[in-house]
Specification:
alpha/beta, two-stranded antiparallel sheet, six-stranded mixed sheet, 34% helix, Glutaredoxin, 5 helices
Length: 195
């Protein structure tokens, strides 16, 4: 009996420890602001894409899995861009993307023949944007889909979401969002500061 009680307590402890500390964020929710830097020094605010359906891929430059998703987004951006889709790649290789992944961006973009904006952000800003806390481990790449009004409608989260990486599933989601009416347009915000 004592052993059974001990086993039950150990199992309960393990389930508690392995459960994510925070519940999944509700959808839809307002997309926070994020500054995207380019190797040239130009910066772009994520909010400057308001009015478009945006697919963000937070990626590592040397990941073949991230490269495959980037190619999928490139294809979808080519097909659905005229209807209002905007794919955006954001490299956040540790420890400092401006000195690691950021330097490799031009070669990656050229090698994969990407036709959409790809920049970088530091890990702290990416963690803040994604709501990552402490030692929480995220699947890479992280894919976030934002509607025309600036609300996050889908996000990878702590575990991989095959539907956000599969071309057909993603196309279906994006097609539905592209059919929604765009919000009233205000002035676009842009970065533009040089570092």
């Amino acid at each position: 009996m004592h052993m059974r009680k001990l086993t039950s307590l150990v199992l309960l402890f393990l389930m508690t420890v392995s459960t994510p500390a925070r519940p999944a964020s509700p959808m839809p929710r307002k997309s926070p602001e994020l500054t995207i830097s380019e190797p040239s020094g130009k910066t772009t605010l994520l909010s400057s894409f308001k009015g478009k359906v945006v697919v963000l891929e937070f990626l590592f430059v040397k990941s073949t899995h991230c490269a495959r998703v980037a190619q999928t987004l490139n294809k979808l951006n080519g097909e659905l861009g005229p209807r209002g889709l905007q794919a955006v790649g954001i490299v956040f290789d540790a420890p400092d993307p401006s000195k690691t992944g950021g330097q490799l961006l031009p070669a990656m973009v050229e090698n994969l023949k990407l036709t959409y904006p790809v920049g970088y952000a530091n890990s702290r800003d990416v963690d803040s944007y994604l709501g990552r806390t402490g030692k929480e481990i995220l699947a890479i790449p992280q894919v976030v889909v934002i509607d025309r009004a600036g609300f996050i409608r889908a996000a990878t989260g702590p575990r991989t979401d095959p539907g956000l990486e599969d071309e057909n599933s993603l196309r279906t989601l994006l097609d539905g969002l592209l059919k929604e009416s765009p919000p009233a347009q205000g002035p676009a915000k842009t970065g533009g500061s040089k570092r």
